[in-house]
Design a protein that fits this description.
Helices cover 21% and strands 31% of the residues. The longest helix has 10 residues. A hairpin with a 2-residue loop joins strand 16 and strand 17. Strands 7, 8, 9, 11, 14, 15, 16, 17 and 18 form a nine-stranded mixed β-sheet that branches. Strands 3-2-5-6 form a four-stranded antiparallel β-sheet. It is built from six helices and 19 strands. By secondary structure, the protein is an alpha+beta fold. The C terminus is likely disordered. It has three domains: 53 residues, RNA-binding S4 domain (Structural Genomics Hypothetical 15.5 Kd Protein In mrcA-pckA Intergenic Region, Chain A), CATH 3.10.290; 91 residues, Pseudouridine synthase I, catalytic domain, N-terminal subdomain (Alpha-Beta Plaits, 2-Layer Sandwich), CATH 3.30.70; 81 residues, Alpha-L RNA-binding motif (Alpha-Beta Plaits), CATH 3.30.70.
Length: 248
């Protein structure tokens, strides 16, 4: 049965459906030797589909891993600087890629998968899933700052989604604060930039949770397979961003 080319690419496990759409729009996909740019183009796995010169194959057995990323590891499948990559830790010959990212110096829960549809669901901007971070930073967190975070602060000329601030612990002697932050969007270096706006520098940052998934049972650098019921819980935890109410 034929299907749209970008869906077949995602099903092959080499990238998400959204990434495949971009590749098609940029003219980097060929169908039976001919470059295509229309997203509605259909094919089957019996056709020859090339993405940036790579011929895709039929879908691999789907798998998603929960990984406890250590600090000093890049969230990518290739690094020209030769640094340690998250995929290096997973003993699996299938083509895995991370869902989202964590900074090089950030640790915590990360998902790696070859399931394009799942990656697409979790990374679409309109879909929001709560992510809990534990952060330690310089200085004392003021109540006014917490209130600004929780109302949705302006950062780089755009308003962020509200960020919950929980379990605040202040070490006045060491002049540092630790707390948990709950985000529903993931802008680049968001937590570091938010705190920097108020003169705080991040000392340590760890992601504790993605929706219902936690680090329980994992040590740094270890991983386990996401169970079917956990995948269902994860999908159910996705919240679609609601459009703002029209002004009266």
């Amino acid at each position: 049965m034929s299907d749209r080319v970008h869906k077949l690419i995602a099903q092959s496990g080499i990238m998400s459906r959204r990434q495949a759409e971009v590749m098609i729009a940029e003219g980097k996909v060929k169908l039976n030797g001919q470059t295509i740019t229309e997203l509605g183009t259909k094919a089957t796995f019996d056709d020859v589909i090339e993405v940036a010169g790579q011929v895709i194959e039929k879908k691999e057995e789907p798998v998603t891993y929960l990984f406890y990323k250590p600090e000093g590891v890049v969230t990518t499948t290739h690094d020209p600087e030769g640094r340690s990559k998250v995929v290096d830790y997973i003993d699996d010959a299938r083509r895995l890629y991370p869902i989202g990212r964590l900074d090089y110096d950030t640790s915590g829960l990360l998902l790696l998968t070859n399931e394009g549809e799942l990656a697409n669901l979790l990374t679409q901007p309109k879909n929001q899933i709560p992510k809990v971070y534990e952060v330690t930073f310089t200085g004392v967190l003021r109540r006014k700052t917490s209130s600004i975070f929780e109302k949705g602060m302006i950062l780089e000329k755009r308003k962020l989604q509200p960020v919950e601030v929980n379990f605040v612990k202040v070490d006045a002697k060491a002049e540092k604060t630790s707390c948990q932050l709950v985000l529903r969007e993931g802008k680049n270096h968001q937590i570091k930039k938010m705190l920097a706006e108020f003169g705080h520098e991040v000392i340590r940052l760890k992601r504790l949770r993605i929706g219902p998934l936690t680090l329980d049972g994992l040590q740094k650098g270890t991983y386990r397979v996401l169970k079917p019921f956990e995948k269902k819980q994860l999908i159910n935890a996705v919240q679609t961003k609601k459009s703002p109410h029209p002004k009266s």
